[in-house]
Specification:
420 residues, alpha+beta, eight-stranded mixed sheet, five-stranded mixed sheet, 16 strands, 21% strand, elongated
């Protein structure tokens, strides 16, 4: 037993379960790679002001959940609680928007950190795959990203997730709604923290999960009744494009999302098999975020999908991914000369693209064959002094038990042929 354990609210990814997480990341990123999105990687920590401005000073993320600290040099930094602000900062810093080819389409994968009360599906360290399309205002982009996320989930075999869709309006029509919502909320019985939120960002109150708050929101003004004609038309185009693509969605007039930067299109992927932590991912349009963090006007849209929660969704639906074994061939040498010869063959097989492992540590035949079976390999290469004297190794099919001698110089070709 180690002296140390993983910090509260975190987890270690270990084989064989880690293979599922890798497969989920690959499945989510696959449609993005096929649609013009390039990979971006940003630091695990940023200037704390990047998130205070971008995510929003009134959000729980900034006020309660962010891991903020001061360096020895006096810099105020924070572990990244989400990906969008960091990706946009990096794109602006590198002037990607000046390359003459908008939108700039980027995808990323990494770990994020929030100080939350740990529970199943909610961790203090979690993994996401995200995508951002920066610099273009086009309902087809919004629809594209939703379609790609839907495609990723369906490629994993998920079927019982739902897509919730809403429009949050823009800088023209949302202020009018904001004022009407504030008037309504100020008449409710709310605690002091929530009343402060009413003054700073009243839409966040709609996202409050407490039953005592939700019960009072009956009869609250709906944003749909305040949308300007441009926002209505934009939202209808997104809906039409999704419908034409055969992607089912549900209109959710109360969907706000937890970040201040969203405008117009907002959406969430939810899975009802996950209990209270039902959101597996989401995103939306954030046309003003670039200006909030000191950049030019760059209308953008994006999403992030939780790898951890996607794995839980697979478990909820009883889906086991078809993950190939990490080892196809296992070499078992009997004696020092066989170790030298078979190790050379292992290297040849690996260079030919065959996943191969070796019985290290001088194991006897019985223990070595147990290791071969545990590895998941289909074939074993076994050789002793007599085999080498005859210029062969034994190729054993671990599924059928059949064993045949193969000439040393034909091992790679025969293994490749047998594996198909």
């Amino acid at each position: 037993m180690s002296t140390f354990q993983a910090p509260k609210g975190t987890y270690d990814l270990l084989p064989p379960n880690s293979a599922t997480y890798l497969a989920v990341r690959e499945a989510i990123s696959g449609p993005l790679k096929n649609s013009g999105y390039g990979y971006i990687e940003t630091p695990g920590f940023e200037n704390v002001e990047l998130f205070a401005r971008g995510v929003g000073e009134s959000t729980d993320i900034v006020t309660k959940e962010m891991y903020a600290f001061e360096t020895k040099g006096g810099d105020k930094l924070a572990l990244r609680p989400e990906g969008t602000a960091s990706v946009l900062r990096a794109a602006l810093e590198a002037n990607l928007h000046k390359g003459g080819n908008l939108p700039v389409k980027l995808w990323y994968s990494g770990s994020y950190y929030r100080y939350e009360r740990p529970q199943k599906g909610r961790y203090r360290h979690f993994s996401q795959v995200g995508a951002e399309a920066i610099g273009t205002e086009d309902p087809a982009l919004d629809a594209e990203l939703i379609i790609l996320a839907d495609q990723a989930y369906r490629s994993l075999g998920l079927r019982t997730f739902r897509i919730l869709l809403n429009s949050l309006g823009d800088k023209e029509c949302r202020p009018v709604y904001r004022a009407a919502l504030q008037d309504f909320l100020r008449g409710l019985e709310l605690d002091d923290d929530t009343r402060r939120r009413v003054d700073i960002n009243p839409l966040r109150v709609l996202d409050d999960k407490r039953e005592s708050v939700q019960r009072q929101l009956t009869g609250a003004p709906m944003l749909r009744d305040y949308l300007c004609e441009a926002c209505k038309a934009y939202h209808e185009q997104v809906r039409e494009l999704l419908t034409a693509a055969g992607v089912a969605f549900e209109d959710d007039e109360k969907l706000v999302r937890g970040l201040d930067y969203y405008t117009r299109t907002t959406f969430e992927f939810v899975h009802d098999g996950l209990g209270s932590q039902s959101a597996v991912g989401g995103g939306g349009r954030y046309d003003g975020l670039s200006e909030m963090i000191g950049g030019p006007a760059l209308p953008s849209v994006g999403w992030a999908l939780g790898v951890d929660r996607t794995v839980l969704a697979l478990e909820a639906e009883g889906i086991e991914l078809d993950i190939p074994s990490a080892t196809a061939v296992y070499a078992v040498p009997l004696g020092e000369e066989a170790r030298r010869v078979l190790f050379a063959k292992v290297t040849e097989l690996r260079r030919s693209g065959v996943a191969t492992d070796f019985a290290y540590g001088g194991k006897g035949l019985k223990n070595a064959m147990k290791s071969a079976n545990r590895s998941g390999a289909r074939l074993a290469l076994v050789a002793g002094e007599r085999d080498l004297a005859e210029g062969v190794v034994q190729l054993k099919n671990l599924e059928t038990g059949e064993q045949t001698p193969v000439a040393l110089d034909a091992v790679v070709d025969e293994v490749t042929r047998t594996l198909g």
